[in-house]
Amino acid sequence: xxxxECVILARQEVSAPQVETLIEEMGNVITAGGGTVAKKEFWxxxxxxxxxxxxxxxxxxxxxxxxxxxxxxxxxxxxSLNEDVLRFLTVRVEELEEGPSAMMQARNxxxxxxxxxxxxxxxxxxxxxxxxxxxxxxxxxRPEGGx
Length: 147
Known about the structure:
The protein is an alpha+beta fold. The protein has a domain at 2-94: 2-Layer Sandwich (Alpha-Beta Plaits). It is 28% helix and 33% strand. It is built from 3 helices and 4 strands; from the N terminus they run βαββαβα. The protein is elongated and about 80 Å long. The mean pLDDT is 82.
């Protein structure tokens, strides 16, 4: 059997439990075809780079599969018939990634970073910076002759 990674984009109007049900159905198609689903990662509701079927956001899900090609083809056929699936991409890989994917690692790193107000970054009010003339800016207008 071959190893695959599949990313699925589901419509934003679909609730998270409905997405879980959809993913379970796709997992059942794989297991019925003689394969296994090694990992399921729900990446959440995210913005899409461009509109897809009039949607600006989508629920992203990653599946790591160990399945024969026929089972993957059947899963892709089922997804193409389902109205809730906007896009999907299945890629054959040499080995499956252990642990959290790069998307989940980026989310964890983003949560660990301090926010702007936590870093002590504060810009003073404008009157504390002094008038513009003192900072080297010219305040007079140029004559219309070009000089």
